[in-house]
Amino acid sequence: MSKHPFVKKRNKVKKKAKPWAFRFARFGHMANGVVYLVIGLLAIQTAFSWGGKLTTSQGALYTIAKQPFGFLLLSVLVIGLIGYACWQLVRTVFDPENMGHQLKGIFTRIGYLFMASIYIGMCTSAIRILLRARVHTSGEHYQTWSAKMLAQPFGHTIITIMGVIILIFGVGQVIWGLAGGFQKQLKKNEMTRKEWRYVEYIGKFGMSARGAVFGIVGIFLIRTAIQADPDETKGLDGALAEVAQQPFGSVLLAIVAAGLIAYGVYMFAEARYKRLNF
Which residues contact 249 (CB under 8 A, 6 or more apart)? Predict the structure, then answer.
């Protein structure tokens, strides 16, 4: 006897996440956008000698905390960053975007896991700031971490692997951004032609700049392992400082900073129009 047709149809229905989970993830994208906007704006100020300074995501959170109603703003951002970290973990474990188990899909999902770890660290730093605890600067944090790692068996190998992963992630972000691959994740039918065009330009510029910065961070990690020198380890601010030290450094820094601002703006577009399949 054949199964009832309604039973068969019901078995094919994929269980969807609760609406609040989607809102939580979208709010996380907005929080991520705010952080990159602050980093980019501070870097722009540095490039034009307007009194800003190069900083990491943790420094951006500290800057937010010093503003009027900073405690409230940072508390809201913590919730959003937790949402973004959770979304990256969902992408890693459950593969809602069907990246698969081929080499490309595995590397992509490792990248998601890497991003989740970054945002979990950001959440930890934000909570420490809210608790009025001291937050280490980027140089202190990364150099202390790398020094401890270098002292461990296979520490050089681990740092090298991490550097290569971050470098590949950065290069991949540049290629993906320039190729416009991110647009496949957006709900084009809900956007006007002008919105679609602006998001394309902003996304390409923003992702390319962000990928370039991550690539520089990866190169610093590889140099740390090769030279066995923890002082070679740099965070986001160190990567931006390296850009500033090149010929026409102020111009290059201004371009990269504008790209990070563009990425922050693009994250707001993702918060509104990205397909979240989970």
Answer: 243
